[in-house]
Amino acid sequence: MIIIPVQPTQSLSDTPSFQLRDIPFECSNPTYGSCTFYADCLESRYHCGQSGYPIGYGQHYCEAFTAAGSKFSLQGQEWLAHTMHCLQAALVPEATGEDEATCNALADKAFATHAACYVNNGLCELFPTDWAEIVTIVGWTLFKSWDATKSTFQAAGNCAALAAWILLCTTLNNRNLCPSGFD
Predict the structure, then answer these.
(1) What pTM was estimated for this model as a whole?
(2) pLDDT, average across residues 138-147
(3) Start-to-end CA span in the chain (Å)
(4) Do 83 and 118 form a contact (C-beta atoms < 8 A)?
(5) Is there a contact between 16 and 8 (Cβ–Cβ < 8 Å)?
């Protein structure tokens, strides 16, 4: 456990005081293969609720990808572990208090990290079967919000093969190549 000073607060007497928060070690160093970072480090700090980013998106999809891990190729499983860790590590400043944010700002920051974490961990080198599994898990939520849509297109735009695959799936509706939901 790490104890860090939090920003000064104003008391009723207008005298600044410092609060100390106990920061679990996991919040400054997310554990590979774990999804508890979202509830224990982000939701416990921001209280965004069940539909907010920490629980409604971060933890939800972390758990969904973890549950489907065996459906990925070995390369896909490695990508999955590194990407999940990258997404959590990118939010350490928000989890530890180094950066202050609202729930909306936290979601904006989180979505802004998705494309880089996906691509930098090898999204472009995955097999189309792994891409299909990603789309099967995430489904149309890729396009439910502007931030999610933007992250999707940023990731695909950095990966010509993935962009071509998405185009083929949306135009040809090839059941052997693409998951359901592209029609």
Answers:
(1) 0.74
(2) 60
(3) 49
(4) yes
(5) yes
